[in-house]
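At this stage, I put together a protein sequence along with its fold in token form, as given directly below:
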Amino acid sequence: MLGRQMWWWLSVLIVQMPFVAGFQAPRSPFSAIKRRALTTTVHRATRVSTGERMINQSAFSAWALENGIQVGGIKIDSLGPSSGLGLVSTQTIPANKVLINVPSSMSLSVQTPKDYNRKASDLCSSRDIYNSLPWYGQLSLQLNALDQNILTMGGGGDQKTAKPWMDVLPRKFSTPIHFTDEELEELQYPFLVTAVNKQKKQWLESYATLSSNLNNNMALSYEDFQWGCECARSRAFSGSFSGSAFNVKPYAFTLLLITAYVGLGLGSLDQAANGAAIVVCGNILKDFVFPKLLFKDTQTYVICPYIDMANHVGLGASGNVAFEYFSDGYSLASNQAGVAAEEVYISYGSRSNDQLLQYYGFVEENNPFDVYLLPPIREWDIEALETAIGRTVSSGRLLKLERAGLLGNTDNSDTEVFREDASNKGGGVVVSRQDGVLGNTDNSDTEVFREDASNKGGGVVVSRQDGVDPAVMQALRALISTDEEWEGAGEAIGNFSVEYSGGEENERLTRLAARTAIELELASKATSLEDDENLIEMKFVEQNENEQLALRFRIEKKRLLRDTISRLQ
């Protein structure tokens, strides 16, 4: 009897294996099954023109309804001639109300470092070519294939054209990749200019690789590829891969087998329950445990129709995007109560104006996550600092900081300010409007930006949120210390890590040195903050849209520096 029971439950497990093995590599974004739990929200670029897209949104809304996208209490609209399209409430909205639900089969997705989307990769001569593209290049290929009706959307055999969705996507963007060299100079911010030029080069290289390896049924110009990349960069949200959606089939099949097992007298209810517990545990492992172990380095990027119309606010977002495990879809829900005719905003994450302008095409006023990247300490005017503080910097101290890597790198030829998943290594300085002098004293791998941020040259980062990085304040305390202060600290840079660790006078002069460096940066600009603010008051006289964006951008940067100077008094 025991052997018969053992083999019975072994057969159950064998039958269940197709379900339990569901943690395999992610499937095509055009298939019905999608992956779960994408937590970091990032969407949408500035819309240059809304008229035609507003006309097309009626057909898009009808298409969304036909394809199972559920929308309630919200619509696509514009609240003004300069606001662009967004999601506007049509009624009073309570907190925690689901406003939009998009089936996974109606979304686009890409997994990195390796995507298993056969339909998309088949557009290339080989899957290796497809996987060599950055994630936004892969999504660009998918978007263009949908735009040309080469690919369709939907699960199983129910395939639908995506043309109504494509017709409401922006066709023009106000991002700096479209700026002329003269307009880029109007930013008055060399690091962003460098980042944009590097972006242009990378995108051209990706296009060259893709265009020479496309199958014959698809034509793709660079302008089309760039459009798709910009849509992807501005409308996709991302998170770590964490398994599949809830699947009722294993549980229904298990219930059927339990009924047969007990009904046919093959064993007791307790024995059946033990077998069912094994199946349940197997599905838990499949959905929650194995993905975290086997795909811990996998990142998923998703674009959802309708949800991608949501606009950004740095703080106080009224909506939140989440994966719905049981319904296998993505939802936008309210996280606070709202009134009718009010725009519902989401947060794209802790994005600086550098990132918002480069990839989304807008500048957020008083952005709490804004940053400014100064040159590394080695490029500062040491003589000017000595004059300001009334002390002479010891060459021995400079050598100590050099050996500690706190002066920044000597080779800035490949300084990347906005590269994905990078960090601020090499002695960056962070200055925050909210918190004054704060940060991590371990500068070995200081992450300044979560995405698209790198500072290989060891530049001095000034941030509204985090204050001046203690690693650099520590370096300045050691740099300007007298022989007595240096000896009192045991001749060790590490002993200057705490405020006033070099004494009150040392701390005062350290702040003065940091303030002087920032004042010199402001003085180096072609225009003053007052000049720029006067231009704003003149309603952008004789300025095109790119120049207006550049003006708003540099005003925010100069205000950040000015406010930092005030806090360093």
